Amino acid sequence: MLLLMLTLPGAAQRRPASAPSVPQGVTTIRTEIRVQRMVVRVPRAPFASAAYSSPRPLPPIQWVEKHADRCVPIQDLAAVTVTRTDSVDLLLNGGKRLRARLADDCPALDFYAGLYLKPTGDGKMCASRDVIRSRSGGQCRIATFRTLVPAR
């Protein structure tokens, strides 16, 4: 929870003896503001422009799905791409990739602009528990995570 402390003129306040003195005639009040809603935005991964691409296009990478943990630390998320209609691919700090498979009734088409998450108390995004939100307001439940590795 985020707490902000504000000092406003106009009201009296009890100060401990060690507090710095306030000029005579000036009084202060402390007010707490609690921020109860926070959203984390995960941007869409940028595409390489033609100016930076190689003279000969590289073949597309074929990804193989492997077992993955049920939860991912939110702080590890770097970007998102949409390559299939039933899932979104998450790019993690450090170069790893995960595929978040979405519930059956939720296409991934709304996530081309990125996705939004509501942070949880444990700081993780978990399959079968959390939802991702699109910029347009839709939301999808995450069914499972799969680690993506290049095919050999």
Which overall shape is indicated by the principal axes computed on the Cα atoms? Answer: elongated
Order of helices and strands: EEEEEEEEEEEE
How many beta-strand runs? 12
Give helix % range. Answer: under 10%
Characterize the structure shown:
This protein has strands at 2-9, 28-35, 40-42, 63-67, 71-73, 77-81, 87-92, 97-102, 115-117, 124-126, 131-133, 139-150. Strands 4, 6, 7, 8, 11 and 12 form a six-stranded antiparallel beta sheet that branches. A two-stranded antiparallel ribbon has the order 1-2. The protein is elongated and about 75 Å long. With 152 residues, it is mainly beta.
Write the layout of secondary structure elements.
Blueprint lengths: L1 E8 L18 E8 L4 E3 L20 E5 L3 E3 L3 E5 L5 E6 L4 E6 L12 E3 L6 E3 L4 E3 L5 E12 L2
Keywords:
disordered N terminus; 152 residues; mainly beta; single chain; 43% strand; 0% helix; 12 strands
What's the short version?
The chain is an all-beta fold. It has strands at residues 2-9, 28-35, 40-42, 63-67, 71-73, 77-81, 87-92, 97-102, 115-117, 124-126, 131-133, 139-150.
